[in-house]
Amino acid sequence: MNTIDPILSQLDEAYDRRSWHGTNLRGSIRRVTAAHAAWRPARGRHNIQEIVVHCAYWKYAVRRRFTGEPRASFPLRGSNWFPRPRVDEKAWRDDIGLLNDAHRRLRLVIADLSVRQLERTPRGSSVSNRALLSGIIAHDVYHAGQIQLLKRLRTSRGPR
Questions:
Q1: Which class is domain 4-157?
Q2: pLDDT classification of 21: cutoffs 50, 70, 90
Q3: Which helix (DSSP H) or strand (DSSP E) does residue 37 occupy?
Q4: pTM of the shown model
């Protein structure tokens, strides 16, 4: 086992592999319909669909740090949080596809990292590459829990 293998294992557990901590990010959106993904607990609060795209964006941003891809190469315009005006199954499936693709592409980049790259802190950053990868793993777990909470809130309040 090399130094990258445990990181890939944790990344997978946080995203789509069986884990000790419960539902991972991909599992949290399983069987969520477009209507459920678009539901908001209150005005100004994020919905599941926006969280999914937010997670895709940050996987892209982390990947970009390693690949040097230009800014604004994410498929959607903007950064961090993206309003999702369409509430239909196709748009929802497209956003899930965006998340899956962002995860797959990040995973490929991480698999090719050397130990030297892992331990490096890029110029202008106070965060090492290892810490950044730890953070994106925690980001998936955090938002998986947030989505689980939103699903329960919607069920307890009834559809709006």
A1: mainly alpha
A2: confident
A3: helix 34-38
A4: 0.92
